[in-house]
């Protein structure tokens, strides 16, 4: 049987990158060795997904290259090797593709968006999807938030303790990860 020294490794990547799964066959394996990459248990039909390592081939490495990956490429990949003495499968490597965040809006508490002076209020950005870790960046009227009574700047919820008149303005939250970003904004009235 062909022997496998190094199995393909699972990867989590951003959309659009090129992914390579590789395995190394033991030098004691007898060539020729036919190979077929499998995705989710089915023969994979992409370029380079199957072939034969001939006896004259000096390489003992078999690779599958997936260019410009997207969510459609997610799944479990392994390679089936068939030699003169039988077949063997590599370990499965899972490909996960990060999802950019999707923001549906900002919810205010109180729900009217009008915060009574001296009371507490909050703004919460609603993220409907996106791969962790997510980064939250809040601004007020396009500027960094510096008010001492506002906390949660790096979280999904901006908290206003004892609302001041200066807290009134348009708040924007940009939610980002390595795959992209999404944003929403909401007016908070103080009165």
Description of the molecule:
The protein is mainly β and 191 residues long. 0% of the residues lie in helices and 54% in strands. The protein has no helices and 19 strands. The protein has strands at residues 4-6, 11-13, 19-25, 33-39, 42-43, 50-53, 61-66, 75-83, 86-89, 93-97, 102-109, 114-115, 121-129, 135-140, 143-144, 150-151, 157-160, 169-177, 180-190. The strands form four sheets. Strands 2, 4, 5, 6, 8, 9 and 10 form a seven-stranded mixed β-sheet that branches. It has a five-stranded mixed β-sheet with strand order 12-19-18-14-15, with no helix packed on it. Strand 4 and strand 5 form a beta hairpin. The mean pLDDT is 96.
Q: Could you write a compact summary of the structure shown?
A:
With 191 residues, the chain is an all-beta fold. It contains no helices and 19 strands.
Quote the average pLDDT: 96
> What is the percentage of strand-forming residues?
over 45%
Total helices: the number is 0
What's the shape?
Answer: rod-shaped
User: Order of SSEs, N→C?
Assistant: EEEEEEEEEEEEEEEEEEE
* N-end to C-end Cα span: 78 Å
Structural class: mainly beta
Radius of gyration (Å): 26 Å
> Any low-confidence stretches, pLDDT <50, length ≥5?
none
Helix content: under 10%
Major sheet? 7 strands, mixed
Tell how many strands the DSSP assignment holds. Answer: 19
């Amino acid at each position: 049987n062909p022997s496998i020294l190094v199995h393909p490794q699972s990867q989590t990547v951003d959309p659009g990158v090129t992914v390579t799964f590789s395995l190394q066959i033991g030098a004691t394996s007898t060539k020729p060795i036919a190979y077929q990459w499998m995705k989710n248990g089915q023969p994979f039909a992409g370029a380079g997904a199957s072939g034969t390592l001939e006896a004259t081939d000096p390489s003992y490495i078999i690779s599958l290259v997936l260019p410009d990956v997207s969510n459609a490429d997610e799944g479990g990949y392994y390679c089936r090797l068939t030699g003169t003495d039988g077949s063997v499968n590599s370990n499965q490597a899972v490909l996960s593709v990060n999802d950019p965040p999707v923001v549906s809006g900002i919810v205010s508490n109180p729900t009217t968006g009008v915060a009574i002076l001296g009371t507490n209020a909050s703004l919460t950005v609603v993220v409907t999807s996106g791969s962790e870790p997510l980064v939250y960046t809040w601004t007020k009227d396009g500027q960094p938030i510096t008010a001492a009574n506002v906390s949660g700047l790096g979280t999904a919820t901006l908290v206003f303790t004892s609302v001041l008149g200066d807290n009134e303005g348009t708040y924007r939250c940009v939610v980002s990860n390595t795959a992209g970003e999404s944003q929403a904004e909401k007016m908070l009235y103080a009165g």
